[in-house]
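> example.struct
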């Protein structure tokens, strides 16, 4: 019986240790990084007089952090989330999606769940790995894009 228990313990240990080493380790969007991004965007918005909704998602399109500034448009909540979902699903900006819709694939603008106007950006590590996205809405689309870029620039060292 003692040999059987020892065998089982060794087998279970080998199974779990072997499985752990087989898992792919990938960087992920953390709550701390998401909060830093939102803070940077909010500071830029205050400086410019914008009232923004800010949505930050992981690469799977799951909401990690959301912030609505005082008096930001209520419908812009949905738009910020849509922009973030679009850049989580495609690892490029919603501005690029707008260009694709206007030049190569016009029908993409009519696909539910895809934003084809500026304000959504993918979040990439320094090595180019897609870990999430940000969507910003509340001002002109170009201003939304500026705010989103400020957010990503603020965490550049965290994305190394």
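> example.seq
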């Amino acid at each position: 019986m003692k040999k059987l228990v020892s065998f089982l313990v060794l087998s279970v240990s080998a199974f779990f240790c072997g499985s752990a080493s087989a898992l792919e380790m990938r960087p992920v969007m953390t709550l701390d990084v998401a909060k830093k991004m939102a803070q940077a965007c909010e500071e830029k918005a205050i400086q410019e007089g914008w009232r923004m909704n800010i949505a930050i998602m992981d690469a799977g399109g799951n909401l990690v952090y959301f912030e609505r500034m005082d008096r930001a448009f209520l419908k812009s909540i949905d738009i910020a989330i849509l922009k973030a979902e679009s850049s989580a699903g495609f690892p490029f900006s919603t501005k690029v999606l707008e260009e694709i819709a206007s030049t190569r694939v016009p029908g993409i603008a009519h696909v539910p769940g895809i934003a084809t106007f500026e304000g959504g950006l993918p979040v990439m590590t320094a090595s180019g790995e897609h870990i999430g996205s940000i969507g910003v809405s509340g001002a002109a689309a170009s201003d939304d894009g500026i705010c989103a870029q400020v957010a990503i620039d603020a965490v550049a060292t965290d994305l190394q």
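> remarks
Residues 2-22 form the longest helix (21 residues).
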